[in-house]
Specification:
Layout: H1 2-9, E1 14-15, E2 20-28, E3 32-39, H2 49-66, H3 71-76, E4 79-85, E5 91-97, H4 99-102
Parallel strand pairs: 3-4
Antiparallel strand pairs: 1-2, 2-3, 4-5
Length: 104
């Protein structure tokens, strides 16, 4: 996992789309891989956190479940954290995808 994080971080920050930037990745103890994102055009006060969580959760589970990029996580039963901050660096939310979520 550390090698994967190091490889991704070589190119970070990475603009994902018009609203999202991947700042970095971190391999954490306990088989956790974390992605840290910034919503580059958004302030926390403009986000309905629960609606945003609902919008992202199923998409992220499906991504971890099906993407060739996430094979490293599936093969090792890794939990994947997705952390989002606003354009000012203020934390918005974290979504944790566990092996139970993507192996259903």
């Amino acid at each position: 996992m550390l090698a994967t994080a190091t490889e991704i971080n070589k190119n970070a920050p990475i603009v994902v789309d018009n609203d999202t930037r991947l700042d970095n990745c971190v391999a954490l103890p306990g088989k956790i891989f974390q992605y840290n994102y910034t919503l580059i055009n958004t302030e926390k006060s403009a986000v309905n956190v629960e609606e945003f969580r609902q919008y992202l959760s199923d998409r992220l589970i499906n991504f971890v479940k099906t993407s060739p990029q996430m094979k490293f996580a599936r093969d090792r039963d890794v939990s994947v954290n997705y952390n989002y901050s606003d354009k000012n660096g203020e934390f918005i939310l974290a979504i944790k995808i566990t092996p139970q979520d993507y192996k259903e």
